[in-house]
Each structure stands twice: as C-alpha cells, then as structure tokens.
C-alpha cells in the first residue's frame, strides 16, 4: 500500500460477509493506515455512514481500520431532497436514510415525485420480478426511481441476496427512469476523494489512489470509470466464473474482466 496515499475499500464482500468479519482484512487495512495511507470505506449500503459503522462494530470490526466511511445512502440523500416528495420501497431498517431531510415521504403514488428504493422487502424469499405489478403502477404515474444501493446481489453468510440494484435493473427493463449515485457512479468516488483530502490535508492525485473490491459491475467498473487502480478480490460473488476459492484460474479471471471491458492492476483471493 506504500505506493498509494488513499485506499478506497469495499465493505461487504471484502471486509465481511454480513455475518462475520475477516481478521486478515482487518489487519491489512490497519497496516495500510500504519503505513501512512488514508483508508476510506466506500460502500453501497443504502443508509448513512453512521449506521454502517455500527454494523461493522457489531461484527467486532475496530474503528481503527479506516479514517472515514462514505455510503451510497450518503450520496443518495441529495437526490431525495431534490425530488421533494417520495414514496419508499424497502425494509424498515432503512428508514433512517431520511433522517434530517426536508423531503417528505408519502404513501399515495399520486402525491409522489419519485420512488426511493433501498431493497426488497424480503431478500430471502422474494425475487425482483415479483415487483413487476408495482412497477407498472409506477410507470403509469410516470415516477422515476431513486436507487439507494446499485448492488445487484450481496453475499450473506454464504448465500446471495438480492439488492436494490436488481429492482432498478427490472424497472429499467420495463422502461422506467432510474437515478443512482453509489458505486459504480462518479458521485461516490468524488465525495470519497474529498473526504480523503480533508483527512490528509492536501490535494490527491488519482495515481495515488487504489480501490479494493470484489464486484465486477460495481467495484471493478467503478474503479475503471474513475481511472484509479484496482485490487480485485477474487473470492467474492464471481468466484464460480474462474475456478475454486483460493486457486483461481488466472486466464479465466482475466477473460472474465476483459469481457466486461474492465481490468485490474492486482488481484488476490482475499484481502490480507
């Protein structure tokens, strides 16, 4: 990490799997900070950064792993404010996304200017296509969607769970308009860089920034679009694309990235 001043590290899939944190990842991030790097956790969690930290603490992740956290929820809040009146789709645990905002939540679609989507109501038993009937109603009212979490799936203790990005994908297929500010889109990287410059007290050249992530459509595409180096964690959600855990077929891994017009400067099975 000594070649870099700033580390943008993904949370879910790199630091933990939603059930347990990985000690080697914790040690790696602490070592990066001890080496002088500013570590910013960059996550597509659809809630403010304070709740992300609380979740990490419940998994016994020490605060010493990072200098700051930026979430998709943080950068999405401005889109909600701009809409003014919004209807919500997602579990109650995401309600704090609205804390401190002047935007109003409404229950009648006729009163809404947008749909804010933070996820499926039940990501274990539901499928994104289960929401098509609701989506046709949104289309009838010409409502855009504000997606607070662009992730399609996330690993939860060994299983894959659908995220808000999967619902946004379905809505786009049906002809809906969708706005997103989290990874892989520019706003979250721009705010992450601003946060790092605040901590370091100096301007940062992108050549001195490295991103760490495991998701091709999110972390890899985001880093490539932002023109920053990437450390790809191969034991994530795409592991079946290129072999077994801890022993990826490197030719298959490179082919996997290239077929999506992406690349990575480094790779390792798990952060350590």
Q: Could you please describe the fold and organization of this structure?
A:
The chain has 272 residues and is α/β, with parallel strands linked by helices. The protein folds into two domains: 6-73 and 205-268, Rossmann fold; 77-180, Rossmann fold (3-Layer(aba) Sandwich), CATH 3.40.50. Helices cover 32% and strands 21% of the residues. It contains eight helices and 15 strands. A six-stranded parallel beta sheet has the order 3-2-1-11-12-15. Strands 5-4-6-7-10 form a five-stranded parallel beta sheet, with helices on both faces. The longest helix is centred in the last third of the chain and has 15 residues, at 186-200. The mean pLDDT is 93.
List the total number of helices.
Answer: 8
How would you describe the shape? Answer: globular
Task: Indicate the low-confidence ranges by residue numbers.
Answer: none
How many structural domains can be distinguished in the coordinates? 2
In short:
The chain has 272 residues and is an alpha/beta fold. It contains eight helices and 15 strands.
